[in-house]
Every structure is written in C-alpha cells, then in structure tokens.
Amino acid sequence: MQSKYKVGLLRLNLVLAALLLALMAPASENLTEALLLWMAAGWLAVSAALVEFSHRRPALVPWQLLPSLLLAALLFTAPERFPLWLWAWAALIMLPQPGWMSGLNLLLAMLSWSWLAREMPPEQAAFAGALLAALLLLGLSRSRDLAPLRGVASRRAHLVPGLRLWPRAQLARDLIRERARVHRDGVHGELMLLRTERQRLWPQAQRLCDLTRSFEHCYRIDGRTLATLLLSADAEQAEGRRTELLARMGPVRRLRTTPLDQVVSLAEECRALERQPATASAQRGVEHV
C-alpha cells in the first residue's frame, strides 16, 4: 500500500475520533470533564492536520506526553463515565517513545486501574488488573521489538516523500561510494555544504533537489545546513554548474565546496563550515577548497 493512502487513512481515523470527542463534550456533567474532552479533540484534530509533516519534524516529547496526561485526567475526573477507556493504555504503550515515558505510561495505567477498582467488586477489580497488566506487557514487548526496525527505517528513509533528501547518516555512507565512483569513472565530484536560515531550510531543500540531477542526492545535515554531491565531467564544468545553481538558489549564509578526493570526513567539513567567516561574496560567506 502506498504511504499516501496510509497517511490518508490515519488522518481519517484521527478526524473521526476528534469529532466523537467533540460531540461528547457538550454532554459532559461538569466543566472539567468538558475541557478535557475538548482538549483531547483538539489534540487529535491538530495531529490529523500535521500527520503528513511528521517526516519533517520528530514528535516532540510534550506532544507525546499530552494524550497520556489527558487520558489519566479523564479517568480520575469521571471514572464512572469512562471505565472502558482504561484499555486505551495498551495502545498508548505501543507508540514510539523514550524509555522514561514508557515507564510513566505504565505508572499512570496502574494508578488509573487502582482508582477505578475502588468501585468494583474485588474479584472484578483483580481480573481487570491482571488483564490490563497482560495487555500492557504485550504492548511494551511489541514496542521494544519494533524499536530496532524503526531505527533502521529512519536511517534509510527519505526525509520527505518524493524528494531526494536524505539524513546526515546517509551522506556519510554515500561519500565512500561516490569517491570510489569518481576514481573509477574519471569524473569530477565535489561535496557542497550550504548554510541557510532555519525558517528557509525546507524551501531551500526543495529548490536544491529541483536544481540537481536525479542521481545526485541531497542531504539535511542539521536544522540550518544542506548538502549535495555534485558530479561533473571536469572541474571547469563543475564551476559552471555551481555558479548557475547558486544563482537560482537565492542567498545562502555560507557555502563550502570540496572535491571528493580532498574530503577527510563529513564531521571535519562541517567544522570547517562553522569556522568559515562571513564574507561579502554575494552575502554568502563563500569558500571553495
């Protein structure tokens, strides 16, 4: 199944869940319950709007933490109205999250169960607790099993679907392959690093991908730095391509280009870019090695 269809289905589910909570909020018995439901509906609605941009921005910890806090607050505020929501902890524990947050979710889940168990017969409370514990352990085990796969996928995957933009780790691996290609084919290759404004990073990344050839990948080094590997017939053609590319890219704060056979390491090139002083060359601080 194509990713766009998965994203569309996920967005639909989030929107439907938000609408359900929004319809429940007016029927709340008190203001606190209504506010919590509206907040949960808002979280789901905003998540639906941003789900397609998750490839650009990793989930922030407060954004991950919010549904857990809202669920716990609802269970503590109105346990008699939302007892079935106790099982939602099993779904939350499966989401990608740091270890401390998994521990917090486990703690909140058990506290929620103990709060609800006050109104249950002892045998029913014990059965619910055992079932919840089993579901939580199953969800936690599943989350831990998938963690290595998520790590591998995040290192390999495009940062933006349909765009030749790769993470920094991929550039470190591609440098070895492209250096070998340059020596084998007798062509000129160079590493280009561009420093831009943080708010202009993604438009500049799109433009850089559009201006390079289909076999020349582009990379996001950090929140302000882009890179690409340019292959040309010789150094003279490379200089012409570079001049044309920069003219169409628009202003960047710094630029550093280094022939591939002179690149010691990506880390060293990034440090050199940091040390490079701003110059008056087209307001870019350009340095060619």
Question: What report would you give on this structure?
Answer:
With 289 residues, the protein is α/β, with parallel strands linked by helices. The chain contains 10 helices and 6 strands; from the N terminus they run ααααααβαβαββαβαβ. The protein is 60% helix and 11% strand. The protein has a 6-stranded mixed beta sheet, with helices on both faces. The radius of gyration is 26 Å and the shape is elongated. The two termini are 46 Å apart.
Question: Could you give a short description of this structure?
Answer:
The protein has 289 residues and is α/β, with parallel strands linked by helices. The protein has helices at residues 3-24, 31-50, 61-77, 88-92, 99-117, 122-156, 168-185, 201-211, 235-249, 266-275, and strands spanning 165-167, 188-195, 218-220, 225-232, 254-259, 286-288. Helix 2 (31-50) runs antiparallel to helix 3 (61-77).
Net shape: elongated
Alpha-carbon distance between the two ends: 46 Å
In the sheet with the most strands, the strands line up as 1-3-4-2-5-6
Number of E-state strands: 6
Main sheet?
6 strands, mixed
Instruction: List the helices and strands in order.
Output: HHHHHHEHEHEEHEHE
Query: Cα-atom Rg, whole angstroms?
Result: 26 Å
Low-confidence stretches: 1-5, 54-59, 279-288
Strand content: 5-15%
